[in-house]
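Page 37, top half.
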Amino acid sequence: MADPVGVSGDLLDAAITVPRRDFDVVADLRVAAGSVLAVLGPNGAGKSTLLRALAGLTPLREGRITLDGTLLNDARQRLAVRAEARPVGLVFQDYLLFPHMSARENVAFGLRARGVRRSQATATADRLLTQVGLGAAADARPGQLSGGQAQRVALARALAVQPTLLLLDEPLAALDTATRSVIRGELRRQLGDFAGATVLVTHDPLDALVLADTMVVLEAGRVVQRGAPAEVARRPRTDYVAAVMGINLLAGHADGTRVRLDGGGQLVVSQPVHGDVHVAVRPAAIALYGDEPLAGSPRNRWRGSVVGVEQRGNEVRVSIAGPPDVMVDVTAAALGELRLTPGMTVWCAAKATEIDAYPR
C-alpha cells in the first residue's frame, strides 16, 4: 500500500464539541503519522460519537478538524467535508460487511465507488486479503467467515482506499476471548505497517496497552486523562480508570513521605510529595497476614476485614475493608493457607516503594 501523501508530524488535529442528547462530547486530539491513539472509556461515554464526528458522519457544534493540513470541519465557518470525500477508513464494531458480496468484492467496494476500474480494484483487494492472511478466502461470503476473518476483511476494506486516517470502533469486541488475543497480535502488526494516523475506540484496556502509542480516557463526554498507556495504567486519575486497570486508587493529603488518607488511615511512600494527592497501589503489591507482621521491611501495616473473595484466573482477588479499603491479589495456595473467608480479620502490608503518590 502506498504511503498517504504528505505524511509528517501531527496528521490529525481536532478540537471539537459534538452534541448528544444527554451531554456534549468535548475533546482535543492530536495524532502523529504512524501512531495509534486509543480512546478508552465506559459504555455511553461518547467514544463512538467522537469517532463518527471524525469520520464526518456526525456534525460538530463547535471546533475544527484538520487532517494532513486540510481543513475537514470548521463549525464557525459551517464547513464540513462530506464523509465519502474524506481520506478516512472506518472499521465498525460489527464490521458491516455486505452479506451478498464475497470478501474480495467487499474489499474492492470502496475503490469501485470512487471510480477505480474493476480489474484494478480486484487486484488491490486480492493483495490486501493476502496481506491479512485471507488470500484463500477471497471468494467466501461473510456468512462463511469466522469472526476473526470478518474483522480482517473489514480492516482490508478500510485500508483499500489508502486512507490518511484509520478509525477503528471496538474492532475486537465481537470476538471471543481466544480469537481476540490472536487478532489483537495481528492487528498490532498491521497497524505498525500503516503510515497514516489511527484512532482506536475501545472499552478494553488491554487493547489500548497492546495497540496504542498514546491513550485518551473519556468519561461522560470529557477527557479525564491522557498519556502513554503504561503511565495511565500506573497513575490513574479517576475511579473508572483505576478499576479498569485493576489498581487501588486512594485520595489523601501528603506531607513529605506520609499521606493522610481521606477515607481514614495513612500510608508511607518512598518519595516525598506535598499537598492533595492520588495514591495508587497494585493489588499484587499488598500482602495479607493472619497476625500483625512485625518482621521484615514493609513500612505500611493496617488491619482490615475480608469482604469478598473472587477467583480471577490463576489468582484470587480479595476485597478488604480497612481503612483503607483495598483489593488484594493472592495465590490459591495463600488463600488456602490463610483460610480467608468473608468477615475474617487480617493484616495488610505494603512496602513504601510499591506505593505511588502523585498530585491530584
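Page 37, bottom half:
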Amino acid sequence: MLALSKPPDWLTNNVPEGARDFLQGGGWWAVLGAGGLLALLLLWLTVGRLVRGLFRREAPPPPKDDLREDLAAIPAPPAGTADRKLTIEGVPVRLRLVVVAPAGTAYDLKPDAIPKLLDRVLPGLEAIVKRDQPRTRIWPKQLSTEGFANTFHRHTPVPEGENAPTRWILVSGRADVGGRQVFVGLGLQAISPTTVGRLRLDTHEWATTLRIRVLE
C-alpha cells in the first residue's frame, strides 16, 4: 500500500512540471481512483459477457414454411369416368391440387364447402373435384392477387424444372363467389408434357380458359 501512496519516480520524472506538481499535491489519488473505476468497469463488462454466453438461449429456428407443395408426391388420380372432360386451353387435364384463400378480409372457409365454392368459379367443377379427389389446401387470407399468385407459384415447383415441358399446369387467380372474393390456385395434370406452364387469371377468365365438356 505504501508503494501506492505516492506517484512512482519513473512517472514524475517523465511528465511536465505542472503535471508533476498535480501528482505530488494529491492528484495521484485521483489518478488511482480513476484507474480503479476503469478496471472495475472492464471487469464488469468481461464477467457480464461471460455470464450472458453461459445462459444465452439458442435463437428459435424460423417457422417452417408449410405452404410448399411437392407435386411429385401427389398421387395419381383415380380412374375417372368418361362422362366429363376438363380442359385448359384445349388440353385435357385432371385436377390434382386445389388451394383456396380468402381475399382481403378473413372469413371461414370449410374444407367440405370447397367443391361447391369451385362450382361457382366454374360451373361443373364440383363434379370434377369429387371425381378427381385432388389434394385440397386452405391458406390464410391473402391481400392481393399479385401476392397470392407469386406465393402460389413459388410454392409449387414442378419436378421437371421451370421452363421445361411438363405434365403440370399451374393456374392462379381471383374469383367472385356469391359476392365474396376468393383466391384460387389449381394444379392440373395433363396426360403428356406440355408447354402451357403457369397461368394467372382475372376474375372473368376462369370460364373462358377452363372448360368442362360433358360427353354423351
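Margin note: The radius of gyration is 36 Å.
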